[in-house]
Amino acid sequence: MSESPSRVTTPVKMLIGVLLVADAGFGAALIAGLVRGFSPWLIGGAYAATVLLAVVAFRVSRARMLKRGLAGLRDLTFGDEGLRVPAGTLSTRLIPWSQIADVSTRRSARFGDGYLRDALWVDLVTGEGVESSVQRYAPRGRLAPAPPQRRQFDQTAILDPALFDAVIDRVRKELRHRQLHAQLRGTPRIR
User: Does this model's pTM top 0.70?
Assistant: First the structure.
């Protein structure tokens, strides 16, 4: 589902490798004339079955990775001090709760795989925005390519639209909770 660079789990890589070696060996045996007497339909069916098995394994692996898409959210963390978002390849930025005005959805600017997607942005009280690495999934046919001069960071969590919306709601609820907590702490108590 995700259009990010293909990442396949290790067991699936091993399975695809074994299938490729088996197909190559069987093809070499056919060319060398070591295997005779098989119907062309049987040979074609065996090749089709191995290719189908490899494709299914690849798709299942990608689906599992998308279901684990929440693991990509480890870059977006809540803390007592504020919200921590990625700031580049190996760095993060801590935005204090008092500096956050809202959370919104805008086109990605720095994070991604070369395509423009909706991303979660943290709107600051100064009017500026800070992009997070959390993005909404969209089919590649609907995506516009990113400008080539733009620097890209690949550490992106591309989430299903419903999950993306749930993350935005969760960040907004946490923000409201922190703002309310700050207001209640700041008001004097009357006895």
Answer: no
Query: How much is the pLDDT for 3?
Result: 39
Please, what sign has the CA dihedral across residues 104, 86, 88, 81?
positive
User: How far is residue 134's CA from residue 69's CA, in Å, rounded to a whole number?
Assistant: 10
Length, in residues, of the chain: 191
The 3-state DSSP class for residue 121 equals: strand
DSSP β-bridge partners for residue 102: 123
Q: Given a cut of 70, is residue 1 above it in pLDDT? A: no
**Residue 88 pLDDT grade (very low, low, confident, very high; cuts 50, 70, 90):** low
What is the Cα–Cα distance from 182 to 191, expressed in whole angstroms? 20
Q: So what's the pLDDT on residue 99?
A: 92
Q: In the block, which residue shows the tokens 């969760």? A: 170
The answer to whether 127 touches 115, Cβ cutoff 8 Å, is no
Task: Give the H or E element holding residue 103.
Answer: strand 100-107
Closest CA to 106 of 135, 85, 143, 63: 135
CA dihedral 164, 140, 107, 168 (to 10 degrees): 0
- Which is it for strands 118-124 and 144-145: parallel, antiparallel or unpaired? unpaired
- Measured in whole angstroms, how far is the alpha carbon of residue 168 from the centre of its chain? 15
Q: Which structure tokens are listed for 34? A: 């070591």
